Amino acid sequence: MPRPRRHDPARRERIVDAALRVASRSGIAGLSHRTVAAEADVPLGSTTYHFASLDELLVAALRKANEGFDRLLRENPALTAPGTDLAAALARLLGEWLGGERARVELEYELYLAALRRPALRPVAVEWAETVVAALSPHTDPVTARALVALMDGICLQSLLTDEPYDEAYAREMLGRVLRKP
Fold first, then answer.
1. pLDDT tens profile 52-101
2. Are 74 and 135 in contact (CB under 8 A)?
3. What count of other Cβ atoms lies within 10 Å of the Cβ of residue 99?
4. Percentages of the chain per state (helix, strand, coil), in multiples of 5
């Protein structure tokens, strides 16, 4: 007689959360169906049922990781207020994001940059950049919005790589330069 299936609608989400914890602790290299199953406290078969490959699991993890910055961007009242000093608002936003849990920010970038070697992640990485460009475009043109995204990425990566404290005044000045029309 077959065993009844256990109804667990949150299992997929728990697996993604576990993947983020494993990757945060051990990097993407430490991620496997087995390590994630152990972290999520689910049978190994559950991870392979919900995610046929590690790339599928990484795509779900990258999407979830992207939610943090996206939420900051969407919920920032300064970005929706008319007449906003966009450079100052973005510099402050970057400071809030980088000032949060460093391991989370590092993981978000690790997943984002993994798209260089893992083609399955590229559409999600591009989707994230396009989301930020779309959020900034009402304040400027799309080409300038792309330049702002590139500059913000560069500033964040330099801060993370050099262990230098984030310099909001510098970020505001550089973002302001991009926003000034020649």
1. 999 999 999 989 988 877 787 888 887 877 788 999 999 999 998 898 88
2. yes
3. 12
4. 75, 0, 25
